[in-house]
Prior knowledge:
The protein has helices at 7-19, 36-50, 66-74.
Amino acid sequence: xxxxxxxxDLELRxxxxxxxxxxxxxxxxxxxxxxxxxxxxxxxxxxxITTDRRKLLVEMTSGAGCSNTSMASSSA
Length: 76
C-alpha cells in the first residue's frame, strides 16, 4: 500500500535535512563527562556512524557514568 506524505511529515523531513550537522563537528560537553573512556565511548560510535555502520551496541558497567555519557553525547 502506497501513501502520500502529510504536510507535517514533509516539513519534518525538510527541517531534518537543513538542520543536519556532521557528527565530528558536535562538541562533547566535558562538564558532564570527564573520564577518557567516556569520551571514547562517545567518539567511537560517532566515527562508526560516519562510515555508514548502523548497528552498534554501547555497553558500560554499572557506576561507569552511563547516564552522564548518554547525556553528554546528545546535549550538543
